[in-house]
Design a protein that fits this description.
Elements (H helix, E strand, L loop, with lengths): L2 E3 L4 H9 L3 E5 L9 E5 L5 E5 L2 E7 L5 H8 L2 E7 L6 E13 L5 H5 L11 E16 L14 H7 L3 H10 L23
Antiparallel strand pairs: 1-8, 2-3, 2-6, 4-5, 5-8, 6-7, 7-8
Amino acid sequence: MGKTYEHIDDRLRKFIESQPVFFTATAPLAADGHVNVSPKGRSGTLAVLDELTLAYLDFGGSTAETLAHLRENGRITLMWCAFEGPPTVLRVHGRGEPVFRDDPRFAGLLGHFRPEADGAGLRAVVLVTAERVSDSCGFAVPYLDYRSDRELHAQHFGRKSDEEFRAYCEGKPYVGTSLDGLPALPMPLPPRPV
């Protein structure tokens, strides 16, 4: 059934890279805080950097809970489910760090992604260092047919200039501060580096 791995080997990397969607889970330290689970799925926005490090592009949305939790405590779990092929669920438990637009590492990290994956509305790159890599059976996960990415998110933010996107972020009540009052996306959002 389930197995724990010392690192992300080539077989696990191929599994990760072939999944059209993954999920992130984070939580604040406070016992009464909001646990957050987010789906991520824009093609090319996840990269396995090495055997213990992954990164994904964090785009604009109505909240920034993951960023807030990572800033507070760094705990994160990434999960992939096989919706076709052999039934598998893979989890990477680890430490995450948001790398914001004004961080000197930001531009270099973008080089790990396909150019078309980077787009309007990019807030940060999230780095994840694996502390535990494990799989389990996906016997209860249904078969689902992947048709294509939804283009709505990219189209919505693609109509905004970077200045308009920054104003959008500042106008959302749970982007600069989380639902639990934790610092999330730094405001004002720095402009994209050129």
